[in-house]
């Protein structure tokens, strides 16, 4: 029997999982997949550790109407196909650890109750994240479950990075700059320590550029500041999210255009960002391939904001010893990397055109893409949030995963 750790990343319209086998105290990916299009066009897809498709099944909308139906379909599939792999623990991605959780935690009833109090802080995600934990606790109360938070990595950042310029009582009530993408930053910071320990101990900006996008400023591997804050709307423009915005514009939409808070929320989360700017697509690939001026403008806007926010974080750090790209856009789009680094000319960062052009997924591991004359290294480091969750889960079980974190 080979022991396994199941990692679950559940949202409102999709639930993804990854199964790691524990082999010689190491974690090997064995299965990955999930259910997408819950309630609309449900589809179950599962691949093995080498990427071969094991399941590719479509459902009628009524067969998988909600997240809980999706969990049951997935659980059934896993039970039938796991073979000799015994799941010894489940690690969950939970978006919000509030002001309380500074690291992953094993879930019991008290923890679950505390996590439920953070639902208002991330209404879109937190509920969906907690649902499978609750269901599993009912079906398998003996199975250890660990919650790993997107916010935890930033909890140690300085007070200056944690506050808004709002009345003090709001901070005490939890209106804080929490920051997100922490599992990705933690993983990438750990990889950087393996491949370039000297740089990793310095002042680094990591750009997590995916459909959600943020930057993190790190000193000696620890978060000092980040562009997302109270919610995952702040900071950079994203696929469909606005990023930072004049709060007066939000008041205008409500007071003068008569939009409800829910309508404004929908616009800011799902109709803005690259999609809103271009009117064409939220996908960088489509925009780069388009010859329409709106597409070019959206890309220019995105790259300039990434560069501007990097400069601001370099001020927080008092300098910049390395810049790192990661996630879907960061790992796959040389043209975006080229434009971001070009816009950061004042930092003295210079790309190697050849190294940048050939660094596209699937990457085996980190790739250095700066030119010899660059003032500091530029890396592309593929992220792996699921592996980070599996490692945390294993550590909390009292079994150390070999690896450097
Ligand atoms: P998430 O995990 O937040 O859904 P990802 O990190 O997978 O997002 O990033 C998804 C985004 O990455 C896509 O929306 C797309 O814009 C971008 N992307 C993926 N592949 C490429 C590519 N080859 N070229 C440019 N952009 C890409």
Automatic annotation (TrEMBL):
Cofactor: Mg(2+); Mn(2+)
Binding site residues for substrate: 93
Residues with site note (Transition state stabilizer): 181, 241
Domain of life, per lineage: Bacteria
Active site: 150
GO biological process terms held by the UniProt record: acetate metabolic process; acetyl-CoA biosynthetic process
Gene Ontology CC: cytosol
Reaction it catalyzes: acetate + ATP = acetyl phosphate + ADP
Amino acids binding ATP: 16, 208-212, 283-285, 328-332
InterPro entries named among the record's database cross-references: Ac/propionate_kinase, Aliphatic_acid_kin_short-chain, Aliphatic_acid_kinase_CS, ATPase_NBD
EC number from the UniProt entry: 2.7.2.1
Enzyme class: transferase
Pathway: Metabolic intermediate biosynthesis; acetyl-CoA biosynthesis; acetyl-CoA from acetate: step 1/2
Record's keyword annotation contains Endoplasmic reticulum: no
Keyword Membrane: no
Keywords attached to this entry: ATP-binding, Cytoplasm, Kinase, Magnesium, Metal-binding, Nucleotide-binding, Transferase
Co-factor binding comment: Mg(2+). Can also accept Mn(2+).
A Pfam family matched in the record: Acetate_kinase
Localization in the cell: Cytoplasm
Residues that hold Mg(2+) according to the record: 9, 385
SUBUNIT field: Homodimer.
Protein role: Catalyzes the formation of acetyl phosphate from acetate and ATP. Can also catalyze the reverse reaction.
Record family assignment: Belongs to the acetokinase family.
Protein name: Acetate kinase
